[in-house]
Amino acid sequence: MSTEMHYLSSDATYHGLPDGWVMHVHPQGWVYFRNAEHRMVVDEDIRDPAIFEKFSACFARWQPQGLLPDDFELHVLSLVNLKYSLIINHTQHVAGFNLEKAILREPLHTLSVPKSSRLRRLYWNYVQQHPVHVSVPKHAVVEARDALQALFLGK
Question: Domain of life of the organism in this record (predicted)?
């Protein structure tokens, strides 16, 4: 058994990265990709030309420019159809599978406990899986505690 270690240079990991995209490495080692201009996050390895071609074709049909408010992101879950993507609202710390659910028209505290808990849980699950490019707000601990109290204690 060889004890020789092999290292991959950081330049090699960025080879093939399409223009406008940044690769982020999760603290546990997996990678995801973000396009800041279009505010999109993709878990598929878009350095592979076949995967990026599939994504580009899907993206061209959807045309999200101007649809997402400023502090929103689109987490692409399916390269077949972008309508199955998660819309992330960083202002209100909620997420939903359609824009109407992610843009809260009423204050979060006026929603039912199950609905607000689901929207928050979707958001914090996203942040847990994609933490590198998201700044965690100072009041995150309080918000997380409140969400857990609401979920488990019904408060």
Answer: Eukaryota
